[in-house]
Amino acid sequence: MRAIVQNSFGGPDVLVIADRPAPSPEAGEVLVRIEAAGINPVDGAVRGGHYPLLGEPPFVLGWDVSGVVEALGSGVSGLKVGDAVFGMTRFPKQAAAYAELAAVPADELAPKPEGMDHAQAAALPLAGLTAWQGLVRHGRLEPGKRVLIHAGAGGVGHLAVQIAKARRRGDRLHKG
Questions:
Q1: Which is nearest to 98 in space by CA: 29, 17, 44, 9?
Q2: What single-letter DSSP state applies at residue 99?
Q3: How far is it between the farthest Cα atoms of the chain?
Q4: What is the mean pLDDT of the chain?
Q5: In degrees to the nearest 10, what's the CA dihedral of 123, 128, 129, 131?
């Protein structure tokens, strides 16, 4: 399979397309054919060596993914081959989303919303989870409460505005 590999720290020019062995899903994982990978500020910081999450190169960047399930590891339930999925996988460990295939934990994926294409879905996980965790998990935003969102036009802010509006109305945004 092809992957975008980083062999040294630096700017975007250190990224090269290379052939790598295709991964196989282990227990609890699924093999995803990557249709789109999100690029976030953390990717550039890791690439530049400013945020050493992955150690020394070579490695494959990328955590936000959207794609189609190709194979299931043992013990996986709730997903099947052919399902369109998206998520932020393995962060802060290597997830290798800048590749044609990635073996990722099944419990870190969700069904891709039908109204989104893969590029839109891959752009959602890091920013969406940041907004959700700030407002709902840590802020305990409930129906009827008010919240002030600074930088509402930014990557996280525009999602926070939508989540806050839905929560204020009492909309249910997820199962559970």
A1: 17
A2: B
A3: 53
A4: 93
A5: 150
CA dihedral 159, 165, 166, 169 (to 10 degrees): 170
Rounded to two decimals, the pTM is: 0.86
Q: What is the pLDDT of residues 31-83, one digit of tens each?
A: 999 999 999 999 999 999 998 889 999 999 999 999 999 999 999 999 999 99
* Cβ proximity of 3 and 50 under 8 Å: no
Q: Is the pLDDT of residue 130 over 50?
A: yes
For 13-145, where are the E strands, in sequence order?
15-19, 29-37, 59-60, 64-72, 84-88, 101-105, 110-111
Measured CA to CA in angstroms, residue 62 lies from 114, 120, 133, 149 at distances of 23, 15, 21, 28
Whose CA is closest to 127, among 86, 95, 93? 86
Phi-psi region of 32 (alpha: psi -120 to 50; beta: other; left: phi over 0): beta
Distance, CA of 145 to CA of 99 (rounded, Å): 42
Short-list 112, 9, 26, CA closest to 61: 9
Q: What does the pLDDT read at residue 175?
A: 45
